[in-house]
Design goal:
Among the domains are: about 140 residues, no CATH class; about 55 residues, Alpha-Beta Plaits (2-Layer Sandwich). It starts with a helix and ends in a 6-residue tail after the last helix. The chain has about 270 residues and is an all-alpha fold. Helix 4 crosses helix 5 and helix 4 crosses helix 9. The protein binds iron/sulfur cluster (SF4) (3 copies). The site of one iron/sulfur cluster has 13 residues, from helix 14.
Length: about 270
């Protein structure tokens, strides 16, 4: 039974967040929202422990579709980076600002880039493409993320500075158009670079938050050097080109790890 503790701990953490936000914000939505996400992630971890092959895809679909369709399209909440800037400029700690604080800014100190591996609705689609293992070496064009990051900030700041009316409606359409662009660019890049996660590696603006915070992550894949036979299989199957055999925080592409567990599943010696 000891092996089932991780999903239980995960659920408890999410319930603490859910109840805290429910009581402090006096809004039942937070109880429902974080309980649902916690249950989905815990269910996925449970399936992973049971060695179910598609455990991660199931969590991606459960959380990703909920955020994209229910929160985004039905509730009109822009959970993308523009939505974060929008609420930040409004000076309110609601919706996207809470989402970013939990999943993308402070959460990664605890669970690294778990968001990227299990919940992102962009990667939910990209991970079904054929290049699960990168077919080409990594390119040195990660600087593009700073341009997309700055563009999102300038876009929302300009709306506020120009005192444009009905920004809320613009945010809704920005969510739709932004997602269409993300999916289109993500799919094209995956085929051009033969790498499903090319969008994550070079374009995604959210990595500007995720990478530095996940550097300090409590949850990390570690290598037992006594068991490792340096076969290199873990590096071959890693979608993010992480040198997971190096236990230091400065390991190659360390802040790219999305905790997908492919290396763990494929290590022939159980060293990870
Ligand atoms: S890097 Fe960006 S697009 Fe990729 S999984 Fe993370 S948040 Fe999603
Ligand atoms: S797959 Fe396992 S044994 Fe092989 S290099 Fe990686 S950690 Fe070592
Ligand atoms: S394969 Fe291992 S090192 Fe690579 S992203 Fe997945 S969990 Fe991280």
């Amino acid at each position: 039974m000891k092996k089932y503790w991780p999903p239980v701990v995960m659920l408890v953490i999410f319930e603490i967040v859910a109840v805290t936000l429910w009581l402090t914000k006096d809004n039942m939505f937070y109880l429902f929202n974080f309980s649902y996400i916690g249950l989905s992630i815990s269910f996925g971890v449970f399936l992973f422990i049971r060695k179910y092959k598609h455990a991660r895809h199931i969590v991606q679909l459960l959380v990703g579709l909920y955020m994209l369709i229910y929160l985004g399209l039905i509730c009109n909440e822009n959970m993308q980076i523009e939505g974060f800037w929008y609420y930040l400029f409004m000076g309110v700690f609601e919706a996207a600002t809470i989402h970013y604080a939990v999943a993308k800014i402070f959460g990664p100190l605890l669970f690294g880039r778990g968001w990227c591996g299990y919940a992102c609705w962009t990667a939910m689609v990209l991970d079904f493409l054929p290049y699960k293992v990168p077919g080409n070496p990594r390119k040195k064009i990660g600087w593009i993320r700073y341009i997309t990051f700055a563009a999102s900030l300038i876009f929302v700041a300009a709306l506020f500075l120009a005192k444009v009316g009905n920004i809320e409606r613009i945010m809704f359409w920005a969510f739709i158009v932004g997602n269409v662009i993300y999916y289109a660019v993500g799919i094209i890049l995956a085929y051009v670079f033969k790498d499903n996660r090319a969008f994550c590696k070079y374009i995604c603006p959210i990595t500007v938050f995720l990478k530095p915070m996940s550097y300090f992550s409590l949850l990390r894949i570690k290598c037992d050097k006594d068991k490792c036979v340096s076969c290199g299989k873990c590096k071959k199957v890693c979608p993010m080109n992480v040198d997971v055999t190096d236990n230091s925080r400065k390991r190659l592409n360390g802040t790219e790890c999305i905790l997908c567990m492919e290396c763990v599943r494929n290590c022939p010696k159980g060293a990870l």
